[in-house]
Amino acid sequence: MTENAVTGIDWAAGTWTTEPEAVVVDGDGMRVTARAGSDAWRITSYGFVHDTEHALVAPLPQGAAVEVTFLCDFSAQFDQAGVFARVDASTWIKAGVERSDGVESMGAVVTRGVSDWSLAPVPDWSGRLVTVRASRSGDALTIRARVDDEPWRMVRVAPLDADAAVEAGPFCCAPTREGLTVLFTAWRLTDADEGLHPEE
Question: One Pfam annotation, family name (predicted)?
Answer without folding.
Answer: DUF1349
